[in-house]
Amino acid sequence: MFEDDIKDKVKNSNLFEVVYKKDKFVLNGKEYPIGYTSYIAIQEECRFMDENLFKALLGIYDDLLRDFTKENLDYYHKGIIYVLNSLKDNPMFALLGVENVKDKIARLFSARKKNHYLAINDFKEHGIDLSTAEKADYADEVMHSLNDFLSAMAIGEIIYNSVLEVNGYAALVFQITHRIVERGARNKSQLADAFGEFLSDEYMQFIFRTASQPFKTRATVMPVIENIKGENCIFRKVYYNNLKDFLNTDLFEGYIQGHYLWRCGICDRYFFMTTAHKQLYCSTKNPKYDVPCSYVAKHPEVVKRKMERQNKIDSPYYLLWKKRNDLIRKNKSLGKYDEDRLLIEYVYGICPQCLKNKEKKSIRQASLLLGLTEDGAQKKLKSILKKLKKNLQE
Ligand SMILES: [Zn+2]
Questions:
Q1: Gap from CA of 2 to ligand 1 centroid (Å)
Q2: What's the confidence (pLDDT) of residue 233?
Q3: How many A from CA of 323 to the centre of ligand 1?
Q4: Is the pLDDT of residue 13 over 70?
Q5: pLDDT score at 29
Q6: Gap from CA of 257 to ligand 1 centroid (Å)
């Protein structure tokens, strides 16, 4: 019953829309760097998703198709809610706005709609009763819900397909990334080599069908005009009717931009980078040292001192990183000049700009505030003073 129509609905419903802006994409009003879905996909919640729960939903759906009763319809409705709830903490489905689907589900499965669906099934099986004007009106009203009926039926399979596609994508990203890191691809050309090698690998072609299907999409593309800082720009809005098209597109568009995953040399976790030649270590907090790996890399003493075992919060490195982080956040980017100025201000207790008196700090305190070592701060101070002297003599 209606199987072909439902299949058609599964294939051709626009599930979500994405706007592409240079090296970013916009989804549900939020902007992400192109390629970012690869980072989401390697999160554990995506890489190790259990398909069985979603397969069970298909079983319920089959039961409903075989025996279209109110009981089975309610059960199918419940199954969808349950499955959506289990997906809401999954970062990929959160990105896609699975929370917003709930309203749609509530509308599609209202008591009134469910009665219409049961009536549609009845019409299909026993024909439409048009013997009185009232019955004809009712039939007319019911048939207005046909499109919603098809959507409601399609949604179970759409969810199931989406889960499979996220699983497949996570595996694909993992395999490609493994090769990129293994080959040490640190720039766009090396990345292209590694990606090309992956695509031409026969075994990978067999698993991921990279030779034919993965980068073929069925998306609808529309131009949109948006005003950015007083100037009109043309962007590409793409309507996707399945997840795979969006994810695969995002992956290789990300590669075009030089956005890809790298394995941090310190914590071994994968991180997403947009400037390959600059990033070797991740900037998320390393649980072992309480500071980001990129900080550990610049301050090897962190690793040595860790042997002393301290409380997280008491750790001078944590405080140091936090202060510096807060400072950088405050100033957006702390320029070299600002750092020099602050050092002078802290150590001499006077602001070189406004010449106002400030609280004087020890070299040690000042170095902590600026994220320098004590020794480093001392050297820096010397070089600033030398520079100032030179300026004075000129
Ligand atoms: Zn790391």
A1: 52
A2: 94
A3: 20
A4: yes
A5: 92
A6: 23
As a whole number of angstroms, the distance between CA 10 and CA 77 comes to: 17
Looking at the structure of the chain, the number of domains it has is 2
Residue 270 domain flag: no
Q: What is the pLDDT of residues 183-217, one digit of tens each?
A: 999 999 999 999 999 988 888 887 777 766 656 77
Q: What's the first-to-final CA gap in the chain, in angstroms?
A: 91
Of 83, 59, 84, 81, give the one whose Cα is nearest residue 72. Answer: 59
Instruction: Give distance in angstroms: CA of 290 to centre of ligand 1.
Output: 11
What are the residues facing 228 on neighbouring strands?
A: 231
Q: Supply the range of the domain harboring residue 339.
A: 312-393
Query: Do 185 and 42 reside in the same domain of the chain?
Result: yes
Specify the pTM: 0.74
- Cα(182) to centroid of ligand 1, in Å? 17
A 10 A CB-CB count for 37 gives 28
Q: How remote is the CA of residue 280 from the centroid of ligand 1, in Å? A: 9
- The CA R_g of the chain, rounded to the nearest whole Å, is 29
**Pair 90, 96: CB distance under 8 Å:** no
Q: How far is the CA of 272 from the centre of ligand 1 (A)?
A: 11
CA distance 278 to 275: 6
User: In angstroms, what is the span from residue 130 Cα to ligand 1's centroid?
Assistant: 70
Ligand 1 centroid to 291 CA: how many Å? 10
